[in-house]
Design goal:
It is a single chain. By secondary structure, the protein is mostly helical. It has a domain of 101 residues. Helix content is 71%, strand content 1%. It has a two-stranded antiparallel sheet with strand order 1-2. Helix 2 packs antiparallel against helix 4.
Length: 387
Amino acid sequence: MESRWKQAWDRWTALFEIGGRGRIVPMEGLRGIAILMVLLVHHATRFAGWAEPGSWTAAYAGFAHAAGQAGVDLFFALSGYLVYSLALQRRVGLGGFIGRRLRRIYPPFLAMMAVYVAMFVAIPGVAKWPEGGEATYVVRSLLLLPGVFDMPAVMTVAWSLSYELAFYLVMPLAVVALRMERWRRVERVGLIAGLAAVYVAGMMAWFPGQLEWIPLKVWDRPRILLFAAGMLAWEQFDSFKDKRAGGWAQGLAAALMAGAVAACYPLADPAYQQPWPSIVRTLLLGAGSYALMLASFSGEGRLAGALSAAGLRWLGNCSYSFYLAHSLGVHAAGLLAERALPAAEWQGAGFWLMLPVTAVLASLATLPLYLFVERPFSLRRPALRGG
């Protein structure tokens, strides 16, 4: 009986690719934390009406909305680390590398686009596209233009995929054009840090840099600097492969990231004028993400152990599907709450009671996309252990 239970457990963990050692394990945990932060943002936004003005619940909702958005920034830093390392160590042709990146993004994205388009057609009242411009609206979204470019998207959460796709396309081209694999490490680090400094200077001098002939604000995209933070973290980690962060260093890294996330709340105050709050926010999150990756990716120590918890890793491995599909669960929770826990009668309590319900419904919306689309089409199939 024990053997059967072990086989069932092994098969379940294999569905989420739970296994392995080293830096990939805490990376999965960091992805889990990032997607939890995103969920808290959307829960706080959807249920803000259940928070009594001036209450501590309302204060939390405001904080969660501002600080939780750092989850996307953490995703960008992790992508910078991973994709940059893969580009430098590229073992396939340029076309094959880019093709693998596109395969990583598009199957789950196309599946969710089909769901949203079908929903807009069936329920015109929830449709976001302008009347008469449906086709253009969908094509722009399919090309992942909204996000980097100033235009609306069919799926609101897909704005970040525009950044990811731009990075996926630029990084291998930059490696080929500059032959960075032949550069010394100090030269690569200097180039990355120098380009980041130039961008910060551009933000301060020419913000927002609106182009008239294209819907793009050149100096209003500070989140691209998070990719640079991940790239620099890989260079640093790779140069000290045999060194491990001590307990104090791990604690300091976690505290730095927590402080950076907390600082996002006051920096989101609309009373502040751009661009300096965005620059400070980005630099703090970049430093926190950099330190957190260096401290945990060895796979050793308490920080790496905490990030290796099975629950976080399960969530991290399906985080892309969760990111795309969780909004459906959040909206379903909102509709349920409007019927069962009307805000006028359940202010305060309703906000918190619906938090676990939202998490469950978001997970239920995620599992079909992960199991039937992302896992078979975008990820390698893990070998099932235990017979």
